[in-house]
Design a protein that fits this description.
Number of helices: 8
Order of helices and strands: HEEHEEEHHEEEEHEHEHH
Structural class: alpha/beta
CATH superfamily: Zn-dependent exopeptidases
Helix content: 25-40%
Strand content: 15-25%
Length: 261
């Protein structure tokens, strides 16, 4: 049993909040930024090597989110705890909300989750993130969530570097795609539109809860995590996104107008 004071301390450390006093119309989210497992859970019974893999977090996504928050002076919320502990971007009835295995490799401490255990994890890894996002969402005009993906999935090479995922066609998405595609070639990067995932074909919790349910425009940015294997390609990704989102902000009037669905 974990005592209430320890749970409170762990919850307090759950969210990394940046530029909370920013007046930017954007809010950045990174639900899979961290790879940390709260200490009482002893790495979920796994070899610590798994904490450096894509199973644990979205490689590079937190780094990019911090960079953009600073360069754009934009508020951001990043989750510190690993999605293996609890995935904030999944709904409670999704199989991988607290995933029992990693591609067939059992996660020992995730195999039997009773109501009390789920409540403990949610108190640590859901409530603090939710509250932080909702506090910063007030007064914003749009929300962007930043993620990364593996270069190869099930033997298939994913031929895209930086993509925008969307499920509602709107001016915010169109402007962002236009600006991304106009710049990607110049950085030697491949732009994507709803690849390697098509957001219209699956559900994700975070932007549904914090953007769609509040009639705010939104999209996910997906990044090829192979780009973060060296500083040069990592820098190109960050510069591309910095320029792209700066241009989106300059065109704010186009995507905040009531006449631009």
């Amino acid at each position: 049993m974990i005592d209430p004071s320890t749970l409170a301390e762990l919850a307090e450390c759950s969210a990394e909040i940046l530029a909370s006093d920013s007046a930017s119309p954007l809010l950045l989210l990174c639900e899979h930024a961290g790879a940390e497992i709260p200490a009482p859970w002893e790495n979920l019974g796994l070899d610590p090597a798994y904490l450096s893999t894509h199973y644990a977090h979205d490689l590079g996504a937190g780094q990019v989110t911090r960079r953009l928050s600073g360069s754009l002076n934009t508020a951001a919320v990043l989750a510190r705890y690993s999605r293996m502990f609890l995935d904030y971007n999944r709904f409670p009835d999704d199989w991988d909300y607290i995933r029992p295995d990693l591609g067939g490799i059992p996660v020992p401490h995730n195999l039997v989750i009773d109501a009390d255990e789920r409540a403990r994890r949610e108190a640590i890894a859901v409530a603090p993130i939710h509250d932080a996002i909702e506090t910063l969402r007030a007064g914003r005009n749009a929300v962007i969530s930043i993620h990364s993906f593996t270069p190869v999935m099930a033997g298939d090479t994913r031929r895209v570097d930086v993509a925008i995922l969307w499920d509602e066609d709107c001016a915010f998405v169109r402007v962002a795609l236009e600006e991304l595609k106009a710049r990607a070639d110049g950085f030697g990067l491949r732009a994507g539109d709803n690849v390697p995932y098509d957001l219209r074909k699956f559900r994700a919790r975070s932007l549904k809860t914090h953007a769609a349910d509040h009639a705010l425009p939104y999209f996910y940015i997906e990044l090829n995590n192979g780009l973060f294997s060296n500083p040069e390609t990592s820098s190109r990704v960050m510069k591309l996104l910095d320029e792209t989102l700066s241009a989106v902000l300059r065109r704010k009037a186009e995507w905040t107008s009531a006449s631009s669905p």
